[in-house]
Write a structure and sequence with these properties.
Blueprint lengths: L2 H18 L1 H16 L5 H15 L2 H13 L4 H33 L2
Length: 111
Amino acid sequence: MDWKAKNAEMRDQLRALNKAIPETTKGFGQLSKAVKEGGVLDVKTKELIALGIAISSQCEACIGFHVEALAKEGGTREEMGDVLGMAVQMGGGPALMYAAKALAAWDDLAG
């Protein structure tokens, strides 16, 4: 899977959604900004958490975006591996499948 292309396609779809429901997407954007800027955890840690949730929620688009953000925040493949392990421990077989997708996304997006 080409994760760069997948992220680009999702961004195109989100732009269309932004036009259809601008107030809702604006509110979601404000929420996203607020949770990253506030609190005691750094953005990299928050992206690691978000990736674990994306795996457990089985959201491929979320995996792509959070892997991309994690790489930009200086995350490592090894740190991500710890998150993948926890996601598998908590989510069993389905999480194992999405953890593999997340690792492939890392290799494509951060490599």
